[in-house]
Amino acid sequence: MTGDGWFVGTARDDTATGAGHVREGRADAPADWPARAVEAGFAPDEEAYYAALHEACVAATRAAATEAERAGDQQLVHAVRAMDDCTRTANELAERLSEWAGALFDEEGGGVGFAREVVDREPTGPDEERAISLAERVVGLVDEADELEAYVETRAPTVAPNLSAMAGPVLAARLIALAGGLESLAKKPSGTVQVLGAEDALFAHLRGHASSPKHGVIYTHEYVRGTRPEDRGSAARALAGKLTIAARVDHYSGDRKPELDEELDERMATIRARAEDDATATDEGGDE
To answer: How far apart are CA 180 and CA 191, in angstroms?
Structure first.
């Protein structure tokens, strides 16, 4: 058989090999591939050729989807979402436990700390047994959330080294999860990255019911949270801009670039210097 068709060197019933050729192969120019396949003896007619091509394309697509789902950034997405689910569920159950245990035991309390105290009790009846079992579930969820966070802190720097160094592993994972993956995050403009996680406030603004949000989850970053309110918009824009560049470097090259951190530090120092300048001007005005 001659030519560059995907069927070259492939038996018609060998779908796996055909799928590999579909994913990796290429041709320099279009050709009448069905006719060439029939001429080469790959298929008895065009209908059989298209049936084999359909099977190969479905297998290639399934393999590509599986590969993408098992990629490192998608594992981070699952991990950080599972961590948040465990934390939220544990807090809700802890509130329920506080009401229940408060009615059964002399001690009162709330939160995960109280759940750990209830776990250590010896039940004296079926009611206490169920309440203590619920407390064990709360503690188990909190422990699982802690282990997931430890996993995220270890995994994120290998998936997105620049983004993790700049944002911290957990915030980096949250941004990747909110965008749907590292590639999607790398393709977003910095203005979108700035408000990721503030969708409710953004839509309220678009309906004319609220002011425009200055930041989303990046508020948890020290460079935004620790900046005075009147400068947080500038700080959020500066941080989002560098996070966007970091995500693009991580996705397209994967090389670590410490100079990005230095550029952000310098920009934030300039923004925060405004507070010192304003304080100095106020003092000088008061002395006059």
So the answer is: 17
